Amino acid sequence: MDSTIAADAGQNGADWKVGVDIGGTFIDFCALEARSGRVASLKVLTTPEDPGAELMTGLTLLAEREGFDPKLMTRFVHGTTVGINTIIQRKGAPLALFTNAGFEDVIELARLRMPDMYSLFCSRPDPLISRDMVFGIPVRMRADGSESLAPDMTAVETAVAAAKANGAQGIIVSFLHSWRNGAQEAAVKATIARLAPDLFVFSSAEVWPVIREYERSSTAILNGYVHPRVSGYLTALEERLKDRGVPARPMLTKSNGGLMNAAEGKRACVNMLLSGTASGVIGASWLARQAGEDKVLTLDIGGTSADFALIIDGEAQFGTGELIGEFPLHIPSVSVSSIGVGGGSIASVDAQGVLRVGPESAGSTPGPACYGRGGERATVTDAMVVCGWLGHSEMAYGQLRIDTGLAHRAVGDLAARLGRPIEQTAQAILDIAVSEMFVDVEKLASRAGVDLRDFTLMPFGGGGPMLGAFLARELGMKRVMAARRPGVVSALGGLVADLRGDFIRTLFTPLSAVALGGIREAFEALAREGRDWLAAQGHDAAAELNLSCDMRYVGQSYEIEVVLSPEWLVDGNLAAIEQAFHLFHQQLYDFHDPDGEIELVNVRLSAIGAGPKLSLPETEEVDVAAIPTRRLPVYTGLRVETVDLHDRQALVPGSTFQGPAVVVQEDTTFAIPAGAQARVDRHLNLLLTFAE
């Protein structure tokens, strides 16, 4: 396969670095041989019944096709959906929650918000821990960290016995004000471990010691809920890699776009719940910087969902409160919005005769009808086949052959129910999918306060290039950029990611000259913790420490995260800190109060250890009209047109052509609508521009 990345040469023979991402339908591989700069990429169908088996299959195929030797692998980075799927499918461990007596309803009350305030029929999801598994313990810590009531260990012993009798496999301990002092949680955890060594125990302060009992409790619950499955999966992964003779210690992609080792992943499972979506954005931001694109909207379409994120000034955006299934995740993560529309999303006709798409997906088993793996219901992929955009080459590196007859049969069943021609029905499926994505992207842009007409759309994943250009056209975006291998961008993201650990201290203090000393001490403590964490990950080079604080005006209910310079703390520059808060508040809300009193709630620190230095090779562009491989009929929305079919591998830097057109390659198919001018840049990215 062609080389798309160059890297520093290894010193001792071949030096393979491998990024892997498991999605709902495919597992993606991006393998780099550092000496030569050669890249091998691959897709393999997932095996939901045996997670991890597809990884060994992929390594075997890479060895056969590329001369890849797993024994020479010096870096192995892995993203997985085991954790998030466990939550979505509600197949996690039965848990018990130990909290303060009188506060047993904390996870049911949550924040008293409805998921959809405009719906009369919406309801909140059932908690992951049922009410009969929540036990109140007589114990109390004051807000200043002093003990008001010591834990009643007799009550703990009674609660442990009841939890075991009710089938609990693990216990979450979350007490009031443990963000200030976690001693009570630690004491109760130790007692549980002594009384019931067969149960696993997590305390909220050790998982994420942040103020607000619901956020702290729910984060710890998510961690415990997925712990057995994630830990078991990672243990099996390590054993499989060892059996293959892989010397590299496996690293895992995290929700914050960074990496951690597998040993920590078994314990801090909550940090990897959004690993796949986050690594896709990290890979896209790396590609954007290489191409000089500073404002990008990413579109990652897999088999079950479409994920959107913003890249601003070449960097991914971060936040808290991302949804894991139906539950908010309160640790820092790459800001990604998701919708249940993917290539495998099933189209159906409801009781009122209305055509709908998703969120139910055919997944990898049986998959879309056109895959010939037993699927009989029409999907978005089948609609692409019926319209003629898809099905002109092998897919997924030769693992799939499109059966157009099966696609026509599946979509034809819907067409008969609707009383419409089959091509119009297929186009309606695509239009609905694009419109549903349009709504969610507009919401994302509104929240971020950006004008998408200033952004470039970067589609990736197996389905991103199929629908991306159509979405960009509807959004009024003028540019689309598809990387040379868009189908494996998430795997690339793991390959280029840095080690990244996030740490927090809640201070909850007025911002004043008197408070600066405490803020400085918190930063220094977090810096030590961050450096120690990097050392435990095996990083012995320089560390990048990024400081931010959650602040608000007195009287506000929620705070905003403001990036600060550590030098301001060292110099005691209170005015600079205040000014940074005022400016950011103005940017977000178009308002600030220069005389308002400011509260500082949390001090945050990100410790970053730089990953491998990689870069895309540049090839001089030569203006040349691309020569199509052949022409084919495509239903473009109103009529059947004859369009050009291009082979991506034959397109060289400087190649140009007009839409409508189809570009085929091993990992995806790029559908290009009318009105688009296409050009291949010096990095082999395919750029589309739409006329004003």
Automatic annotation (TrEMBL):
Question: What InterPro entries does this protein's entry cite?
Answer: ACX-like_C, Hydant_A_N, Hydantoinase_A, Oxoprolinase-like
According to the entry, every stretch annotated as the Hydantoinase A/oxoprolinase domain falls at: 216-500
Tell me which domain of life the UniProt entry assigns to the organism this sequence originates from: Bacteria
Domain Hydantoinase/oxoprolinase N-terminal, residue spans:
17-193
Domain Acetophenone carboxylase-like C-terminal spans what residues?
519-683
What is the designated name of this protein? Hydantoinase/oxoprolinase family protein
Query: Per the UniProt entry, what species is this protein from, by scientific name?
Result: Mesorhizobium huakuii
